[in-house]
Amino acid sequence: MNNSQIKRMWVIALVIAGAGLVIVGRLFAFQLTQGEEFKKVLIKELPVTDQPERGVIYDRNGAILAVDRWDYRVAVSPSVLTDPEALADSLAPILQIRRSELLYDMESPNMYVVLAPRVTADVADAIRELEYGDEIQLDPLPRRFYPQDKLMCHVLGFVNFDNTGSAGVEGEYQKELAGEEASATVPISPLKEQGSVIAREGSDIVLTIDRSVQYVVERHLKEALAEHGAVSGSIIVMDPRTGEILAMAAEPCYSPNEFYDLKEGEDFNPLVSAVYEPGSVMKLITMAAALDSGTVTPTTTYNDTGAIEVGGHISYNWDRGAHGVVDMTTLLARSLNVGAATIATWMGPTTFYDYLQRFGFGHSTNIDIANEAEGLMPLPGSDLWQESFIATNAYGQALAVTSIQMISAISALANDGRLMQPHVVSEIRDEFGTRHIEPIMVGQIISENTAAQMTAMATVAVQQEVQEALVEGYTVAGKTGTAQIAEAFGYHPTDVIGSFVGWLPADDPQIVVYVKLDRPQSAPWGSMTAAPVFSKLAKELVVLLDIPPDAVRLQAGNPTGGGG
């Protein structure tokens, strides 16, 4: 290599080196002046949302009553489909949609087309198996599933497609069950670690209701409606010591799995929302008020002439008979309207209505089920109240109550005078632990002595006048009710509401059962319709809830029995 060649190589090397310095310099300048803009190009930000799974609802023994399952939305991006005709051929029988309709959608100019708004997981699995299944978008959609179908529909309620609870526990505990979605804008970039968000999952809820007890209650209710030709009805089983609802049933019912087929009003919960005149079961409350206020004793008598006029309204006994000199126990046993009206007037409006309010009438019970009604009980001094109401209210007319109000009030008689707030939820479970729902005592509304007197009188009433309600081996306290049905222009001429409320064992009550049959056609009296239902049901409940017969319980020296 001569000197000329060597010189040329040096020149080339210097040129390359100079060019490299220029490039490096320009990159350095770019870093200083335009680096942030460059980062903005590389770093993309994407909105991210994490949807929580709705909490599970269990019965008191751990049986699943409501849980989330997944449906799927079927969609395509028409521009990326390789063989729309073949895909339409395969999809048509799976989606049960005409091939021509599918092909029309697949040829749409839109970037995103929904072929089916909601399909089951089985259908989604079948789509994934197709030859062109990877070209189909399957977007997951939560769906509430109720494994027990119609069982306790009025207690549970349902969840709409937008994951909003409606009615029942689903509505009342929407916030807890739904959880909370998490949303954020996160960077998507090779220069930065990808972010994520985590939703707060919905809390699980445990009910006080026993699925087995509920099943038996619903079976007996359906059988009663068929036997007595009633158009509707309800049964509630409650632990008077705690306010726990062990079963709560009403017919007609519906499937919360098919809530979208409900007509207006069909999701109505009659147990907490429907109001009606209770009839003679209210005499238990009137008598308790009279005893507790010192107005009467069990041996107090009055002269029953068969009629009494109060405020211009004449009240008659149900049999239109005059019973002469009658004591309080006989008044209750024979369910005498005149007697109830008489002792209410002896108390006077101030005392009488003070006790009715203590028992919770005219106010919500605050049960943890959505859409509870307060009932209707006009008070003295209001525009709606009439003087005659002190008589008619005493035997359950001219006021409106709910079933949950009625059984709650009666439960206070069975619980030594203590009124407990009814509830259907016992636990709420989340990531922080378990929150136990403790029983709430509303108040000591009558004395223990009054409660004991009422139980003794109600036991005699069943033994003497309502033997249809007896349960072999157990003492039962209770009362029938036969209520006229108020309509726009008075009472229905023939239709009634037949009811019976009872508690057992009478000396240490563990359950209170309230049976109500609407418009029974077999007989007009609660003693002939609701009372036999109570008896048949109670015979099964004492087994399910491990309540031993009186003789066994007392012989063993265990006054409290097994319980449930």
Textual characterization of the structure:
There is one protein chain. The chain has 564 residues and is of the alpha+beta class. It contains 18 helices and 22 strands. The protein is elongated, with a radius of gyration of 35 Å.
What's the count of strands? 22
Any idea what the radius of gyration is?
A: 35 Å
What's the shape?
A: elongated
Q: Determine the N-to-C terminus distance.
A: 108 Å
Question: If classified by CATH, what would the architecture of the largest domain be?
Answer: 3-Layer(aba) Sandwich
CATH topology (fold) name of the largest domain: Beta-lactamase
- How many H/I helical runs? 18
- The stretches of 5 or more residues where confidence is low (pLDDT under 50) are 2-17, 21-25, 190-194
Class from helix and strand fractions: alpha+beta
Strand content: 15-25%
Whole-number count of domains: 2
- The first-level CATH class of the largest domain is given as Alpha Beta
The CATH H-level homologous superfamily of the largest domain: DD-peptidase/beta-lactamase superfamily
Q: Give the integer mean of the pLDDT values.
A: 87
Helix content: 25-40%
Major sheet summary line = 7 strands, mixed
